[in-house]
Amino acid sequence: MADFLIFTAGLPEWLAWSVTAGVAAFLVLNVIAGGALVFIWAERKIAARIQDRLGPTRTGGRFGWLQSLADGIKLLAKEDLMPAGADGMLFKLAPYVSFCASFCAFIALPFAFDFVGQRLNVGVFFVVAVLGLEVFGVILAGYASASKWSLFGAMREAAQVVSYEVPLGMCVVVPVMLAGSMDLVTIAEKQSGWLTNWYLFHDPFTFVIFWVYVTCAVASVNRAPFDLAEAESELVAGFHTEYSGLRWSFFFMAEYGSMFLVSALAAILFLGGWNGPIPLAALLGFSAGTGDTANYWVRLVGCGNLMGKATLGVLVMMWVRWTLPRLRIDQVMTTCLKYCTPIAALMFAGVMFWQLLLPGGLIRGLARPAGEIREGWLEGPGGRAATLRPLPLAAPAAPAPTPAQPLVSKPSLSWVQP
Amino acid sequence: MMESPTLPVFVAAINWHSLLFYLFASAACGFAVAVVLTENVVRMAFYLVLSLGATAGLFFLAGADFVGAMQLMIYVGGTLVLLVFGVMLTAQAPLVSIRTSPADKVLGGLVAASLLAVLLQSAFSVEAWRRPAVGDVGTPSATPLGMALLGVRVDADPTTETTALPAGQRPVSATQAAALNPSTRSGYLLPFEIVSVHLLVVLVGAAYLARAKRRRTPRSTETAGLDAGGGP
Questions:
Q1: Which residue in A56, A186, B113, B157 has the most C-beta neighbors within 10 A?
Q2: Within an 8 Å CB–CB cutoff, is residue B91 touching chain A?
């Protein structure tokens, strides 16, 4: 887009870059804020249905569509209170810390092949690292409120963080290992084609580890049954007991933003990203040109695909929240450390051996020395175009290397690579 | 349009790269100073987070995504523990603020000043660092780093490897053949893994040794507690 502005519209370079950055930031901000509005309404309706109630019905027509907007106006008009003993600066800054962490993680999240704020070579790593910073806001808020309930919430959050971070990291590593890249765009593109190309269905181990990821992701966004930092039936409202008005709503925007983010991450890592279950674009004969209109529409549909999958993930989280009771802190640590971590480690090893021995491995993998496969990884940024180059001295007796991808088990129908 | 013509010239000279560099650099330095000057432990940890985060921003600005993400994950994330300890400590009144004695201030200042002098001297003594690098240095990626662990040295240019031996010529020695054959290069993966497993064992051992020796509670009380707390 910056190139378009510079070369076509004739804007000076600095202005073009700022406009581009502004538009991207505006779009992402709207995904978070608008998403939060819709999700809060959906949550109220879902919770009501699960509890055999109706939920909001009057505001804005039949289904209470405008309930979140009315809530937002109410929050804007609310007085911004601060307890007398609070640490003023930290109390005021904590909501923004949470929100910034959630917002920054969206920078590297691709919505379609090139609908990404900044395509990072280490996208997965960046998103997980930045998402981990959200707990700073929670702990600071709990400390700065000068309230027992808040402090309890913050300390529970700290205990929870150390338990879910380990298995979460292990789950995220598996798709990285399968794709041979930490680039989110590459990982999603590797799963293009039919439904069976999704990493969820890659092998039994990835299927299991997906559910471990779901557990840890729910824990990482502080949703029930892992909402110990909040625990409204025990700790009043946990870390945000003392917050009101707009600052309080920043915590909620951060929470819903993070929910959307971990769901989108799950979609990219395990559920094929922006690739639909049926490769319609490839079947209709679209291939990757350079930004022609048809291609643009294909990407827009892909963006819708990803958003749909992420929204589905958020709805599942709501369903879980209103179904399962809250765990105690020791049960949370038991779940994450005693169950999720060993399962994740075992599945990690399983995927590794599957990848090493099974995907065409008994036929193709054994016939080729491991070094050749390694060399193949180096070629091309995506590894998709990784054709094996003949090595000067390595094993001249080996069969002629086929141009098949060493890492992808099935032939892929992709519209990105012609 | 009819205003002073100097304004567009000035504005057109905005270099986002330099501007962001100065922004991040001043944030990193400013918050580092704030860490030294505050007395509240939790605020100190918070300023440290901001300072380290700004440093990560500098890495991203330089195009070193992997190092930047590492900085966020290890240093900024690691400060979380510091923050938690701070919260735990300052729950009691006498430790809310930390006062430094004047002698410690002098000593700390001396150490800091000498370190700064050494760093400045070495920074300005390297010829290549005196002026900013010009031109596109390409997008650095973490791939070579990972491949080096597997034994594929991308810093050794493969073209020179292939041209080092003319076609048809056999390698002179077994070691040379091994060096040229990628499948026999061992890399650093094994030592790396051994070190990390070793660290893990040390951590588990330390946790085991430091664990308070408690009498085992009978299982019946645990389940009774569960049943009693039947509420939401």
A1: A186
A2: yes
* pLDDT tens by residue, chain B, 232 residues: 344 444 444 444 567 778 888 889 999 999 988 888 887 777 888 888 889 889 988 888 887 788 888 888 888 877 777 777 777 766 555 556 667 788 888 998 899 999 999 998 888 887 766 665 555 555 556 666 666 766 666 555 454 444 444 445 555 555 555 555 555 455 677 788 888 889 888 888 887 887 766 666 555 444 444 444 433 3
Q: Chain B interface, mutation test: which of A121, A220, A233, A338, most B Cβ atoms within 10 Å?
A: A121
Identify the residue whose tokens are 């175009």: A385
Most distant CA pair in chain B: distance in Å? 87
Q: Tell me A108's DSSP state.
A: G
B11 to chain A: closest CA residue: A14
Three-state secondary structure along A181-239? Answer: CCCHHHHHHHCCCCHHHCHHHCCHHHHHHHHHHHHHHHHHCCCCCCCCCCCCCCCCCHH
Q: What is the pTM assigned to this prediction?
A: 0.72
Q: Which of B69, B90, B184 sits opposite A129 (nearest CB)?
A: B69
B82 touches chain A (CB under 8 A): no
Tokens of A216: 């840890």
A367–B contact, CB cutoff 8 A: no
Tell me the shortest Cα–Cα distance from B156 to chain A, in angstroms.
13
Three-class secondary structure assignment of chain B: CCCCCHHHHHHHCCCHHHHHHHHHHHHHHHHHHHHHHCCEHHHHHHHHHHHHHHHHHHHHHCCCHHHHHHHHHHHHHHHHHHHHHHHHHCCCHHHCECCCCHHHHHHHHHHHHHHHHHHHHHHHHCHHHCCCCCCCCCCCCCHHHHHHHHCCCCCCCHHHHHHHCCCCCCCCCHHHHHHHCHHHCCCCHHHHHHHHHHHHHHHHHHHHHHCCCCCCCCHHHHHHHHHHCCCC
Residues paired with B40 in a beta bridge? B97
